[in-house]
Specification:
With 119 residues, the protein is of the alpha+beta class. It has helices spanning 24-43, 57-70, 80-85, 87-96, and strands spanning 3-7, 10-14, 20-21, 74-77, 101-104. Helices cover 42% and strands 17% of the residues.
Length: 119
């Protein structure tokens, strides 16, 4: 048994345990963005992990928090709309993961510093 909801151009489906199956168009977009980010990181010789899971929001927050615990540093965008809508995600990384978090200010495409201290 599955449930579904149609809102605008996006269709969300849920299976019996409530795990959502995201519209293929959005899933393809997420993969495309993740591949672009991974490519940019590789060209800059930066190790980067990307995933594009289709999970319920609470499971997504838990997964992201788990990944943050496994890595030395998490970098998130501080775009105002993302900060408001993803507050639970930001708090999970900041308070639950126990690992450092950098929020990149809006409008910063590049950053340079002689010394960065993460404590």
């Amino acid at each position: 048994m599955a449930s579904w909801c149609h809102a605008g151009d996006d269709v969300w489906l849920g299976d019996d345990d409530g795990a959502p199956l995201i519209d293929r168009r959005l899933d393809d977009l997420a993969r495309s963005v993740a591949e672009r980010i991974a490519g940019d990181a590789a060209r800059a010789s930066v190790v980067c992990t990307t995933e594009t899971p289709s999970l319920r929001y609470d499971r997504l927050v838990a997964r992201f928090s788990t990944l943050a615990r496994l890595h030395d540093l998490t970098i998130l965008d501080a775009e105002p709309l993302a900060v408001l809508s993803d507050r639970d995600l930001i708090e999970a990384v900041l308070l639950v993961s126990g690992r450092p978090l950098i929020m990149v200010p809006l409008g910063r495409a590049a950053f340079w510093a002689c010394r960065i201290v993460v404590a």
